[in-house]
Amino acid sequence: MKKILACVLTAAMTMSLLTACGGSGSGDSGNAGNSGNAGSSNAGGGDGGASNSGGGSESSDGGYKTTYGDKQFDNVTITVELFDRSNAPEGNTILDNKWTKYAQEQMNKVGINLEFIAVPRSDEITKMQTMMASGTAPDLTLTYTYSYAEDYYRDGGIWDLSPFIDGADQAKNLKAYLGDDVIDIGRGGDVLYGIVARRATTANSNLFIRQDWLEALNMETPTTPDELYNFLEACVKNNPDGLTNVIGGYFWGLESTSTGTGYRNNMTMAFSQLKGDQKQLDIADGFDFFCDPGYREYIRFLNKCYNNGVMDQEFYTNTTETFVQKIVNSQLAFYESNVNYNVDPLRNSPETTLRENTPTAKFVSIPNLKNVNDGNQYADAYAQGGLIIMCPKTASEEKVEAAMTYLDWMATTDGGFVLYHGFEDENYKLDDEGIPIVIDAAYNATDKDWIRTDMFLVGNQGYFATVDDFNKCTAAENPIYYEDVVANYENSLTGQIIHKPTFTSEKQTELTDDFLLLRSKYQVQCITCAPDQLDGIYDEWIEEAKKAGIEEVIAERTAHFDEVYGN
User: Fold this and answer.
1) In angstroms, what is the C-alpha Rg of the chain?
2) What is residue 512's three-state secondary structure?
């Protein structure tokens, strides 16, 4: 355990632990549109750390003590939101179980009483809004939608947490675990309006191909869009298994249920003309179709695939069920989806069913394709932060102090590590590198896994020192596909990593539905039209977006990121 803590502290201090979402099947991936990178997420460009007013002086002058163990509280009670997924095993409830009791017992040692407040995960936003409006929100209130936290602070509804966190002696464990970059995601200028959870990995999506067909065709792994096209064409028109119903490729974010207004993923990054310009990519996020000329070229590539019959002709009507059926029935040669989709047991692991149907079949992830403009690889990644934790003004100063102490305990091996991984020799054993390896996955599923993500508030996807530790530990939970899982997480982040920003402008929130309707109409038309009609339809899409107010949105986003980046 000491080795693990040392690794965590060292990694956090050197900021090396955040070099790589998405997530494993065990936790929330967050709000893809509101997830983002630390460098671009400060609402007002604050410097963080000791530069924030009041932080250091509070601690050194005997003010708020929020490092776990530094203060004995006088029987103070704090309420903590706990997501309820209605998945408690028999004999347990979301509020009364082994792990809520463990946290309560540990906090009682320093005079803090924990009272958990269950909130349905599926209705988190509505419940949060209701509780905030009625003054009944828990002392620790959670959300994955950053814009709400920003709004609540602007409206005077939540505490500035910097006086409780920024002092040199304050929240030492929490700051070491999160690191400055993640801490700063919750800042607006000198204000720290929320504590953001650190993602164990920022891996988002992957490109998956039928390896058995690739080998049978004696082709090399595709490294460019053109090479991918050639592979799809060969699989459809000269299928090595003699199949005649192969539909080629499935490209993520095109289906009618997609929530992206101008969807960015690893495939689109192979065409982006903004490439590694993080500021311009932050501005464009969600509006790549308008801001990035490379998105038009991506659509042109899809138009070619569609008209030549090497991509799913029914892409705009796909559901999850029809998509999976096409995988397991050997109709797809390629698809893009969640980072670990092919072997994710929580998503029914389509790879398992595929191999049952066709024993020789195998989908594997491949590294990100080279950008057509500069030949480099770029990875579309989630934010470095997960959910954001805020303290409503209905909480007293003492309760906020106790709440920050609770979060600081979360960043210790006796806190978050236990809540997520369980107990040594019962839930896991440490390997030679100090990485927790699951003993019995079936036991853990009903013992702790059903609640571990929601109990461990300061880390999305679990308590890990490094991304590599996360990869190995997650792979060990699915030993049949160990090598596949490790490769999936590594391939997802090949090349320069482009983290999504957290910022959502006011006008963007107001007009999102309008832009979604335009995307649903024009994107399908652009992909399915005759090639010589594409530019005309795409131009019409741009003009209709202008009428809908997209230039106002981009102006708001530009002003924000000008402030963030200092120009």
Assistant:
1) 24
2) helix
Give whole-number Cα distances, 263 to 234, 269, 340, 561, in Å: 28, 10, 19, 20
CB 410 within 8 A of CB 419: yes
Q: What residue type is 177 in one-letter code?
A: Y
Q: Rounded CA gap, 200 and 179, in Å?
A: 12
Q: Are 286 and 519 in contact (CB under 8 A)?
A: no
Judge whether residue 135 has pLDDT over 50: yes
145 CA to centre of own chain: 12
Q: Which fold has domain 205-375+505-565?
A: D-Maltodextrin-Binding Protein; domain 2 (3.40.190)
Cβ neighbours of 154 (radius 10 Å): 13
The tokens describing 34, both together, are 């509101």
**What average pLDDT score do residues 193-221 get?**
96
- Rounded mean pLDDT, 139-166: 91
| Distance (Å, whole) CA 392 – CA 343 | 41
DSSP-derived secondary structure letter, 371: P
CB 168 within 8 A of CB 123: no
Is 177 in contact with 13 (CB distance < 8 Å)? no
CATH of domain 2-201+383-496: 3.40.190.10
Amino acid at 310: V
pLDDT surpassing 90 at residue 565: no
**3 state DSSP class of 109:** coil
The residues, any chain, with a CB within 8 Å of residue 478's CB and separated by 6 or more, are 343, 345, 441, 485
What is the percent of the chain where pLDDT is above 70? Answer: 87
Specify whether the CB–CB gap between 279 and 521 falls below 8 A.
Answer: no
Cα–Cα dist 367/364, whole Å:
10
Domains 2-201+383-496 and 205-375+505-565 agree in fold: yes
Cα 566 from chain centre: 26
How do the residues of the chain divide into helix, strand and coil, expressed in percent and rounded to 5?
50, 15, 40
HEC string of 128-157 equals HHHHHHHCCCCCEEEECCHHHHHHHHHCCC
Contact 69, 63 (CB under 8 A): no
User: How are beta strands 248-250 and 191-192 bridged, if at all?
Assistant: unpaired
- The residues spanned by each domain of the chain are 2-201+383-496, 205-375+505-565
Q: For residues 502 and 385, is the Cβ–Cβ distance under 8 A?
A: yes
Distance CA 229, CA 249 (A): 9
Q: In the structure, what pLDDT confidence band is assigned to residue 274 with cuts at 50, 70 and 90?
A: very high
**In this structure, is the dihedral angle defined by the CA atoms of residues 214, 218, 223 and 225, taken in order, positive or negative?**
negative
> Residue 494 in contact with residue 377, Cβ under 8 Å?
yes
- For 415-472, write each residue's pLDDT tens digit: 999 999 999 999 999 998 888 988 998 899 999 999 999 999 999 889 998 898 999 8
Query: How sure is the predictor about 347, in pLDDT bands with cuts at 50, 70 and 90?
Result: low
Mean pLDDT, the chain, whole residue set: 87
